[in-house]
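Here is the promised in-class demo. Please do not try to memorize the tokens; focus on the logic of going from shape to residues.
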């Protein structure tokens, strides 16, 4: 449910961007659009990807000035300025830019109520219209408040967890519904220390991954996440897993972006039922199959996922490569707790003009 517009006494006050001195607000300028507009096949992330690309190019060419505070109510004049902060994220609202501009302060407060952390403020940096529709991409930053303060690593970890939950749609931003409706398509552009998401997938409590490995795909996280089932099915076939063996994945971007490549896939092989340890010959077979599967692209269709790069085995799997008989080896750590039910990360179709 959304927040009520007429909330009484507010429990905490969202510091203004002008007070914090680091964030902009009141976006409304237009950024670049995807080719062909958003009239049909263009996904919402297309606009986000273009904005991110523009930000990188512009940041390389110019020294971006500090955002104008709330006193001036000026918008960030280009996408580059919108991405100057260390923590930047976005979501979609079915409202026009002009409608949102009238309620920018309230929107900032609502966001702060949902994900705000100590020593920080929320600043809406850019409002990107999606084609000729009434959908708008809201790009916001979380910046230190006061300006010279530091956000602790503990609170950054809590904020990262909140963002992860929003990305996989296990939760949603609860905004004032009468003003903003329902938010959707939460994405992260920048987060210090990187970000990891766990696509919702079937897994039982305390299952132990007995074979773990990493590899890199030159695709943004949101695209890989949308094809989680396809990726796992192709890998299971390509690695010749037994019917009772499943793959469990996590997705990481070292710069904290869900919309920019590359994506590091952390894959683990788990049993559908039980936690018994596979035999050493089976472990060695799995290790050899994974280590020698570069030419086979881990079973992935390269037209869908591109070429797999940087395959890296866990120390446990590397040990198995050279094991000839029964030796004592450390047991892998238990899997993190996850929902037992399969859940798909759906993006709504692009709004019609």
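The designed amino acids, position by position:
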């Amino acid at each position: 449910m959304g927040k009520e517009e007429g909330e009484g006494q507010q429990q905490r006050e969202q510091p203004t961007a002008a007070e914090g001195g680091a964030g902009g607000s009141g976006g409304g300028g237009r950024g670049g659009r995807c080719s062909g507009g958003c009239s049909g096949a263009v996904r919402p992330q297309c606009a986000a990807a273009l904005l991110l690309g523009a930000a990188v190019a512009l940041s390389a060419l110019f020294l971006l000035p500090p955002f104008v505070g709330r006193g001036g109510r000026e918008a960030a004049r280009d996408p580059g300025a919108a991405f100057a902060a260390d923590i930047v994220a976005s979501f979609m609202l079915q409202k026009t830019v002009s409608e949102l501009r009238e309620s920018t302060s309230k929107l900032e407060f609502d966001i702060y109520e949902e994900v705000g952390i100590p020593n920080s403020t929320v600043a809406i940096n850019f409002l990107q219209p999606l084609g000729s529709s009434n959908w708008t991409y809201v790009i916001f930053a979380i910046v230190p408040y006061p300006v010279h303060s530091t956000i602790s690593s503990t609170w950054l970890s809590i904020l990262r967890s909140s963002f992860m939950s929003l990305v996989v749609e296990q939760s949603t931003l609860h905004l004032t519904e009468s003003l903003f409706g329902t938010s959707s398509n939460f994405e992260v552009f920048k987060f210090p220390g990187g970000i990891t998401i766990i696509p919702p997938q079937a897994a039982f409590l305390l299952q132990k991954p007995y074979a773990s490995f990493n590899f890199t795909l030159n695709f943004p996280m949101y695209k890989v996440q949308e094809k989680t089932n396809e990726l796992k099915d192709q890998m299971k076939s390509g690695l010749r897993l037994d019917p009772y063996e499943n793959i469990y994945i996590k997705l990481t971007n070292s710069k904290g972006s869900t919309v920019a490549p590359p994506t590091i896939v952390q894959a683990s092989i788990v049993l559908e039922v039980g936690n018994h340890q596979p035999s050493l010959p089976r472990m060695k077979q799995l290790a050899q199959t994974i280590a020698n599967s570069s030419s086979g692209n881990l079973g992935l269709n390269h037209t869908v996922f591109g070429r797999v790069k940087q395959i890296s085995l866990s120390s446990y799997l590397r040990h198995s490569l050279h094991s000839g008989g029964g030796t004592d080896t450390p047991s892998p750590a238990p899997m993190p707790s996850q929902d037992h039910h399969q859940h798909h990360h759906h993006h709504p179709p692009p709004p019609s003009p």
